[in-house]
């Protein structure tokens, strides 16, 4: 007797999910702790940066191979991104009296730190935002979440940057409203980098874009002293 053959659905890759979620979860948990204990903000920021970097390294075998095609376009988008970010916050939303901002007291390191401690914090803060955060967030938002929304049973069945208008919008809104104080500005920035991903199919270009925006935003903060952007 011939038994009917069936194709079982793809099993959810639990270890892959942990690899993508764990760095973001640890980073966000420690961010919340830093907000509640501002006196320990520099130490907590250093811990969360190194913890996220360590987890990215430990789980590196689970991540999609990153292709760096169109990396130069990532730089272009990153420059446009910092202009958009500062411009929206300073010249558009800054003059909107009823803009529903999230409550947030920026940490001003020059009020709390001096000498080598100040320089050490600035180096960790700037390098973390420019090197660790772009890799961590792009792997989570534009790789894991984007593809999970397309293929919930096994996100790796979806291609990098595979187009879906609903996914494009959901990821941008979740990225902006979920983890950023400047939620409206972040949503617009998320739409921009989502378009870059959909156009180039390059996660590497998105990482470069994110890194360029964060690096230039750090330079702007240090130049202008507007610590609210950090």
Compose a concise summary of this entry.
The chain is mostly helical and 230 residues long. Helices cover 67% and strands 0% of the residues. It has a domain at 67-98 and 109-229.
Structure description:
This protein is mainly α and 230 residues long. 67% of the residues lie in helices and 0% in strands. The chain is globular. The N terminus is likely disordered.
What do the pLDDT scores average to? 91
Tell me about the largest β-sheet.
none
Total E-strand runs: 0
| Coarse morphology | globular
Could you give the topology of this structure?
Blueprint: H1 14-36, H2 41-58, H3 71-92, H4 115-150, H5 165-179, H6 183-200, H7 203-224
Helix pairs in contact: 1-2, 1-4, 2-4, 3-6, 3-7, 4-5, 4-7, 5-6, 6-7
Features:
single chain, 230 residues, 7 helices, globular, disordered N terminus
């Amino acid at each position: 007797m011939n038994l009917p053959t069936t194709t079982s659905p793809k099993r959810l890759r639990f270890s892959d999910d942990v690899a993508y979620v764990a760095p973001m979860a640890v980073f966000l948990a420690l961010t919340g702790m830093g907000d509640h204990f501002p006196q320990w903000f520099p130490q907590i920021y250093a811990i969360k940066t190194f913890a996220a970097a360590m987890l990215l390294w430990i789980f590196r075998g689970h991540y999609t191979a990153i292709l760096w095609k169109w990396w130069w376009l990532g730089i272009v988008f990153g420059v446009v991104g910092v202009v958009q970010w500062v411009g929206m916050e300073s010249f558009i939303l800054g003059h909107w009296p009823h803009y529903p901002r999230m409550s947030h007291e920026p940490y001003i390191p020059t009020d709390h730190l001096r000498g080598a401690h100040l320089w050490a914090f600035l180096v960790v803060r700037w390098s973390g935002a420019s090197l660790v955060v772009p890799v961590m967030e792009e792997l989570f938002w534009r790789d894991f979440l984007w593809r999970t929304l397309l293929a919930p049973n096994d996100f790796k069945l979806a291609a990098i940057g595979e187009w879906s208008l609903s996914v494009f919008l959901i990821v941008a809104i979740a990225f902006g409203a979920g983890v950023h104080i400047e939620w409206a500005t972040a949503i617009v920035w998320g739409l921009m980098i989502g378009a870059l991903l959909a156009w180039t199919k390059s996660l590497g270009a998105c990482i470069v874009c994110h890194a360029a925006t964060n690096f230039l935003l750090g330079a702007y903060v240090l130049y202008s002293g507007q610590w609210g952007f950090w």
